[in-house]
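Entry for the shared binder. Reason: the reviewer on the internal report wants the predicted structure included alongside the sequence.
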Amino acid sequence: MVQEKADKNVIGAFSISVSRTALREAHPAMSVGASMLSLATALRCWLGWCISLPIPIIVVESMEQLSERFELQMIELPKGAIAMRDDRTGRNWSQVLAPFAIGRYPVTQAQYAELTGLNPSSHIAALCPVESVSWLDAVRFCNLRSLSSGLSARYVLLEDGSGAELLPGTNGYRLPTEAEWEYACRAGTQGPRYGSLDDIAWYADNSGGHPQQVGRKQANTWGLHDMLGNVWEWCADQYDPEVYGTYRVFRGGGWSDAERGCLATNRRRSHPTFAIDDLGFRLARSLDLASG
């Protein structure tokens, strides 16, 4: 079931200077550096923090700028297990994983605009990752992609705007779980990264101050690109419901992060309505419906 698309609130592509230091102080869950955010993004962030509801404020750009297409490619990964750790709490745990498929690249602006007619990104480029998308935006896109591919929608959105639930027995696209994301990122490696950072990731030292086209950095051994750097990626999981309520996890580091921000183990979290210009997502699918 796809939630009916909200009325489009269209505003011009004005921009305002927003200090990422100020954003960090207002929203300490984020780890970010200085940049310009679109008015739409800044308003969405501010309103989302104030009233904790999804805000359908998105900049609609000319589709002529998004004429290029980057075919959605999914990589099937074998079953396995991953050992995980939360440095905040010191908790360690292991997760056994069924086989699943995950996107070779983060979702691009062209792919997002093709299905939604919208492009919320601050840096407009068809083959760059879509960014400035909330967790709720991401799961809505998963449903749209599923239905456009003849698959069942995976999510039903909660009426209070706090999140979404997986529909059992459905076969469509979804966000990867946090364990799936780290398993896919590591691709069998044990270190903090799957290669030399400059070879595999766009980050503060080499990004030029904005996201870059997907797939231009070296893939990991499973053929996945941009798992570290370029944009952080939303995962399906709640971070810590007892402490942070509905906050969701995102992983991987982004174009504005220093070297220490781009590690396979780094965990960040924010409200499902939160959106910022170094945060995107990639798709996943279960290969065994019994595994969810």
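Summary line for the report: The radius of gyration is 17 Å.
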